[in-house]
Amino acid sequence: MSHDLVVLLAAGIIYLLILFLVAYATERGMIPEHWVRHPVTYTLSLGVYATSWSYYGSVGFAASSGYQFLTIYLGVTIAFLLSPVLLNPILRLARDYQLTSLADLFAFRYRSQAAGIVVTIFMLVGALPYIALQIRAVTESIRVLTDEAPPHILAMGFCVTLTVFAILFGARHITAREKHRGVVVAIAFESLVKLIALLSIGAFALVGVFDGPGGVMHWLAEHPQAIDALYEPVREGPWYSLLFLAFAAAFLLPRQFHMAFTENLEPSTLRTASWAFPLYLLLLNLPIPILLWAGQSLQLNMNPDYFVLGVTLAQAPPWMALLAFIGGVSAASAMVIVSTLALSSMCLNHLLLPASYPDPKLDLYRWLLWGRRMLIAFIIMAGYFFYALLEHQQSLVQLGLISFVAVAQFVPGIIGLLYWRRATRSGFIAGLVAGISIWSVTLLIPLLQTSGMVETDLGVHAFQYTFNMDRWGFATFWSLLLNGVLFVGISLITRQSHDERSAALVCCAETIVPLSGVVAARSSREFREGLSEIMGDEAAEKEVNQALQDLNMSADEARPAQLRQLRERIERNLSGLMGPQLAYMIVNQQLELDAQAKMALADSMRFVEDRLEQSRSKLDGLSADLDNLRRYHRRILMDLPVGVCAVSPEQEVTIWNLAMELSSGVLAKDVLGKSLATLPAPWNDLLSGFAKASDNHIYRIDVQFNNRPHWYNLHKAVFADPNPLVNTQSGASGLAILLEDLTNLENLEAELAHSDRLASIGRLAAGVAHEIGNPVTGIASLAQNLRDEKDPAVIRQSVESILVQTKRITDIVRSLMNFSRSDEALKTNTAPVPLNELLTDAINLVYLTHKQKPIQFDSAQSKSVRLKGDRQRLAQIFVNLLNNACDASMNGDAVEVMAFEKQGSAVIEFIDRGNGIAAEVRDTLFEPFVTTKPVGQGTGLGLALVHQFIEEHNGKVEIDSQAGVGTRVVVTLPVA
Amino acid sequence: MPTPVKQERRDLAIILAGLMLVLFASPLILWWSNPQMPWYMPYVLWLLVILLAGYLQWRRLKHEP
Description:
- The complex is a heterodimer.
- Chain A is of the alpha+beta class.
- Helices cover 65% and strands 9% of the residues of chain A.
- In chain A, the strands form 4 sheets. A 5-stranded antiparallel β-sheet of chain A has the order 4-3-7-6-5, sandwiched between helices. A 5-stranded mixed β-sheet of chain A has the order 9-11-12-14-13, with helices on one face.
- Chain B has one domain (4-63).
- Chain B has 3 helices and no strands.
- The model of chain B has no long low-confidence stretch (mean pLDDT 87).
């Protein structure tokens, strides 16, 4: 039974129209977004791997080599199961750096345009036989179904249709960031069609030819050699070579790279595809043995490559043959479209653009778009001519495997790219050229020879027989051996450039390499001007705006670190537009780094921290450990209850923690990266002055701020330049400043002092009241006498007496007032105070307090000594010391007070003959709430305040005590 | 403090690929390619590895935050 050519053509055209419709509907948003991004869609789009070789050729391969045909899918399964270690790193690089093809990836890693060119040419040469194979499969299928040779115009028409599709839906956007969703869904649709077609034909063969599984078992029982024919080649054939070739092809074939990485819409879908894609391949291959046996059972007189069609021709209804034909068209068209898109991108970036970069006056985007479209047409036509020239004796599998061995030559390069930092571009190119040469000699030239295009016989077969190796094993082994040896050897003896080293770091370790250098352009406007010289005004404007938008950055941005980021973003975006190497060259040339300038440490730190925040989920292993450690240390630093301010060697603030924000009221975001001198008052003078000062510590500095006094301790430490974050001048060093806020402590102490004073006043009040009572009684008596007194002399004497008593009262009250006056009233009173006045007042007050306990005060004071300081606090020092001396003394004891000047200081000694102080409490005497008095008689604050006030006055206090003998307290204070 | 989820994913990937190599790239192929074996034996082994990979991923996703 044969089919009408017109019917086949109509079916083919309708199918391709449906394909156009699917792509169009996707691009117009008619297909729900979650379907487009669904892992199943992505998995099916990867089905482009299964071409007409799989669809038709697998049966032929099974017929000639048994289960060896499974290696082509088992190898892919291994590669996809290894996704987390093999495919994910490539996907990360492709997405982050907008790399659209394998040539881009190698040009990026090895920083070499030559690498890109060699890879592109080799890919092109390796893929053309494969494209020719697809065209041939379609024309052969028509020949099988119609039983007549199809006209050449049919192949041409097929090629033109695919060209139109590829141009319409595969070259809509020129940048890698915009995915061709229409193509993705259309290819997924094609994969579904070929799976359904093959499973349907397999089911028909099972039921229609064998009458079910039992029939197959029965037929196999009658033909045991059929199973043996499948299994035997596994044990004897080039099983391992084919497994390895398929493993490499899974991600290195241009079409696989394109669908798996370039057009990947959602990175997480790769996780599902790692097992779902092998499942798809298994389902696709399940009917192959059945179809082979069905063909053998039906004794089809045709090439087993086309048993898929032959089985349907024998007994199936006509629509089954049409379905089989459509499945073949879908397999072939998907491969041609995607391979062409991938190759056109490579050719554009690595052949066309380096050879003829467009004039800046032209519209760059339009040029790139049309350049790519022309390349698509050129590549499909080249495939067509290759098809026309090829001798049709080659099997589908042979043509496919030639391409597989070609892409396997990239295995050493990709291993170097992902795992070996030391690999160099010279090693890569040398190895690849050697591999290509062996591939050409062992596979390509014999293929051309068979087709009659080359007549020379290089005698490869003789070598092959010498080593007792099959054709594929021989070509794979020797090409990869020489490739690998040269790659490793030359990499070891050649040096990497700085750029190559940076790229290697990015590719191998998933690390974040801090950007070094400062861009010479100081604004986004200067960026535009620089780029417009080579890209034209419109493209430069668009690219700079796009990069600003990507980074969420203002057009007014002028900070060096931000501009450095902008430059990197532009380079990445240009990489998606015209390839990594050209983008690198344009950015290096038009947006030069200022060789003289250096990036400030603050900027570098901020940049690295921003990048770490963005990339946290991508960090792994040691990088993740270090980042966690960094976060831990940073958290400690930020949450320290002490203000921390780090200053870079350029005097710019690099760290400003939360305590610093709270103490100063200045937010970190307003101060980071700025000079200390630009801080708001009073911090500018305080911190920049302290940074320059020779002292490393300042204690209890009083700062007026927010209309209130604040007290701080300041400490600083100098640290060395923390290279390699930034290249600073040698010898420059940074500072870490610690700010202890004592304001609360100071206020607390003031309150304690006030409480202590109130307590003292309370104690004094009784004595004072008693002391005032006597003169008041005297005055009252005198006043009574005066009422009736007429003698002027007596009256005068009485008045004099009243005045004397009144003065006595006034003195007592003044002493009390002096003691109890508030801090604020005396805050600015730092005038010299006569020491004898202070001591007299203090003695009077204490005398009154201890009147019930007669204590004798022996005072020897120098009248000329004057102290400078807070009168009230000085008075409190003396009152507290005298109170302690009196408390320790017994009735009738004497307390000596001696004051004199010695070497520019006033020395005041308080000596009592009391019980003395026990040795065990002497060391803690100045600590708050330490007292030797009975409970309820002392607060434990007296000596603590004495010590604090003396320290504040830059004085010192010493206590010399002996139990049972007495105590001598020596206070030394600076004189005015 | 490594990222355990990512590390586990990598470990499992290597184990599964290793299992594939043991089944399909080791002398074990002499066992299943014996003519006495049913014709679908390689498919069964292949399917088992795929199902194991799918099950492990399902289990991981279930436990991942």
